[in-house]
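For concreteness, we quote verbatim a single protein encoded this way:
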Amino acid sequence: MPTTISLAELEAYLDEALPGPRMAAIEAALRQQPDLVEQLRAINRRRDAGVHSLGEVWRRQRISCPTREELGRYLMQAMDEEHIAFIRFHLETSGCRFCSANLEDLRRRMEEPLDEPYRRGKKYCESTAGHLPKKKP
């Protein structure tokens, strides 16, 4: 049974801007519906010709995405409720994979010991000792 997939979803699929489960569903539909593959080709031809929809520009430039700083404040709940609600909507309802990955990275960094970046830097320096050319006087 064919799956209904909108043109906007196909565009978002090409930009990898959909939640994982929806990306997988579209990929499965592409294997079964050759007309969808042709629609993707048409989108790519249009993009190659320099014609872009407002939605494409919005997704590609991540206009609605919060900054990394805003995501950090969201994690610490250091912003007003309205802004928190917007970011929650963006992450959970819109399913922005880019922001979800950014948020997960920030969570991990918040959980790592404070001296971890120092230890990591020291380890890098030690691993290159003896491999760099000596300065000539």
About this structure: The chain has two domains: 1-63, 65-113. The chain has a mean pLDDT of 85. The longest helix spans residues 34-48.
